[in-house]
Amino acid sequence: MSDVTPPARADLRTIRILLADDHALVRRGVRLILDQEPDLQVVAEAGDGAEAIDLARSHDLDLAVLDIAMPRLTGLQAVRELTALKPGLRVLMLTMHDNEQYFFQALKAGASGYVLKSVADRDLVAACRAAMRDEPFLYPGAVTALIRNYLDRVRHGKEAPDQILTPREEEVLKLVAEGHSSKEIADLLFISIKTVQRHRGNLLHKLGLRDRLELTRYAIRVGLIEP
Predict the structure, then answer these.
(1) What sign for the dihedral angle of Cα 217, 158, 166, 164?
(2) What's a GO biological-process term for it (predicted)?
(3) Which of 45, 67, 105, 144 is the most exposed, fewest CB within 10 Å of its CB?
């Protein structure tokens, strides 16, 4: 059992959780951590972000725990879709990456917290309960990064730039970088091949890139796919 004290049993309400990670062994381990708590229950599991969104449509959920790096849709992409689909749903990012860029993208996308897999047995239960209290959960290194980023922006009088790409362009970029053809992308996103080609042209123009290889390198750099 976790040493984090759960709510008093008289007030106990089960928190229904969607768990998404593309590694079955990771899901099993995380589920063991969560399901041993009397107020936490994993009611659905997904292997990628797109499956997580499909499951959210058919399940009553309070909380989603998403890995960041997944095929088809990343956790960062999925959190935007999930919060639009279910405005009351809280989302935690669970990741192996102690990475400031991922951390800030997760907060911007609407995540309630950012938990490292390396300390999930220590932090995840507390993070789930904090999210349900509408309290952010940040690991110590993330708090340092947040303060440093804020002080840097204040010092230079700058705000973080708005996202360059639209969510649809980001989806196309990820699939292009994963090696899918225009027809495969069109089938996956339910759009025409011509629309896919237009998005690719827009991506190259916006990012100042020349070809698929440079798009792939960019997607790796911003965390859409893993190298």
Answers:
(1) negative
(2) phosphorelay signal transduction system
(3) 144
